[in-house]
Each structure stands twice: as C-alpha cells, then as structure tokens.
Design a protein that fits this description.
The complex is a heterodimer of chains A (118) and B (110). With 118 residues, chain A is mainly beta. Chain A has strands at 5-7, 10-13, 19-24, 31-37, 44-50, 53-56, 65-68, 75-79, 88-95, 108-109, 113-117. In chain A, the strands form two sheets. In chain A, strands 2, 4, 5, 6, 9, 10 and 11 form a seven-stranded mixed sheet that branches. Helix content of chain B is 0%, strand content 60%. Chain B has no helices and eleven strands. In chain B, strands 2, 4, 5, 9, 10 and 11 form a six-stranded mixed sheet that branches. In chain B, strands 1-3-8-7-6 form a five-stranded antiparallel sheet, with no helix packed on it. The radius of gyration of chain B is 13 Å and the shape is globular. Classes of the chains: A mainly beta (118), B mainly beta (110). At the A-B interface, strand 4, strand 5 and strand 10 of A face strand 4, strand 5, strand 9 and strand 10 of B.
C-alpha cells in the first residue's frame, strides 16, 4: 500500500515568508509525527498528534512553528517568517496504533520536504 | 534531557559481521530503536528493544543492557546494500517522541 507522502518535496523561499508543509500519513494510522533533520544528523522531534489532538509540541523551536491535523488525517506544519536557520529536511512519520504511556509503535517515515530559506 | 553516543563511521567488507554500539543517557528510559537510512532516503525501522537481551530479525540483531545504558546493532553477512547510516533512538517513559543519535555511517566494501 501507499506509504507516507509529503509535499512539496522541495521548497525554496525567501527569508520572512511563511511556508506550509503537508503530510499525508498511511491510511488508518492514528499517530502522526513531525521531525526535522539536518544534514548528517538524526531526525529531531518537533511535535506529534493522536488523531486530531496535538499531544506533544515540546520540540517546536519557537512560536513561529505550528502544526495542525484538523480531521485526524492530513497534517500541515507551518513556519511563519522563515529564517535561514530553518533550512532543513522536514520529515513526517506515522504509526498505526494508539498506545498508552511510552509503549512504542513503529514509526514509518515519509520522503521529507527539503526547505531552503534564502 | 537525553544524549546518545554512537560511532560516526564504520567500514567492513562484504560477508563480514559488524557491530554498531550506542550508549545513552536519559532520565526515563523506555526503549531503544534502530533505524536505517540510505543516502537520499527516509529512515526505516529495523529493530526495537525494551527489555534486556537480544532481538533477532534475519541478518540483523539488536541487543540492550538497561543497567549499562547500552545497546548495539549487529549486522551479519554484510551486503553492499547495507551501506547506509544507522541511527539508534530512545523512547522515554510517557512520551512517544523518538530521540535519535547522530548516526553511524556504514560503508561495506567488496
């Protein structure tokens, strides 16, 4: 079946502009995660949702970053007033089950959106 | 906070066995995951340990020692296609977020 999809795959923007990055998780997956990955580094957690509820946004760097998942499926990560330091690969992941506490369910990653802020 | 340490690079030959170590520091450790990422690709799940011991999945095995805050990924019968970056990642109790290490770049030579 189809995996996690993200759009656009590449986004070049000028400093100060707003950008919206889209994630379409695997059908039926309850949980959705956003990560940011710098070149040569591991993904860095930003936020995650169970259904439409944002459960943890502790990784969002500042209030220019926000995310939503209004219908519990597609999610949008928005970065306002972009800065050059925001340039990175933004990855979305989804997992199938809603589990309690720290129980882990496999996260399936999408291809990412490469954001470049000029 | 959390921190993870893993070697930055490992080189091995086809058919060999390689072990990638990971040590971690976290306040509420729950489990250790391993992900593989080929250049230009997305991270893909390999293995997960929550309890001490060895988990085996085909050519790949993962080990965890909670008392030593240490784990490793063992890759056997190495193939050229195993050349990739390998990340360990911890999950803390009560959180769903994965905290990744900086990754180990494995180069398999003929």
């Amino acid at each position: 079946g189809a995996g996690v999809s993200q759009s656009p795959r590449y986004k070049v923007t000028k400093r100060g502009q707003d950008v919206a990055l889209r994630c379409d998780p695997i059908s039926g997956h309850v949980s959705l995660y956003w990560y940011r990955q710098a070149l040569g580094q591991g993904p860095e957690f930003l936020t995650y949702f169970n259904y439409e509820a944002q459960q943890d946004k502790s990784g969002l760097p500042n209030d220019r970053f926000s995310a939503e998942r209004p219908e519990g499926s597609i999610s949008t990560l928005t970065i306002q007033r972009t800065e050059q330091r925001d340039s990175a690969m933004y990855r979305c992941a989804s997992s199938q089950r809603l589990t309690a506490g720290g129980l882990v369910d496999t996260q399936y990653f999408g291809p990412g959106t490469r954001l470049t802020v000029l | 906070g959390q921190s993870l340490e893993q070697p930055s690079e490992v080189t091995a030959v086809e058919g060999a066995i390689v072990q990638i170590n990971c040590t971690y520091q976290t306040s509420g450790f729950y489990g250790l995951s391993w992900y593989q990422q080929h250049d230009g690709g997305a991270p893909t799940f390999l293995s997960y340990n929550a309890l001490d011991g060895l988990e085996e999945t085909g050519r790949f095995s993962s080990f965890l020692s909670r008392s030593d805050s240490y784990g490793y990924l063992l890759l056997q019968e190495l193939q050229m296609k195993d050349s990739a970056s390998y990340f360990c990642a911890v999950t803390e109790t009560g959180r769903r977020a994965l905290t990744f290490g900086s990754g180990t770049r494995l180069q398999v030579q003929p």
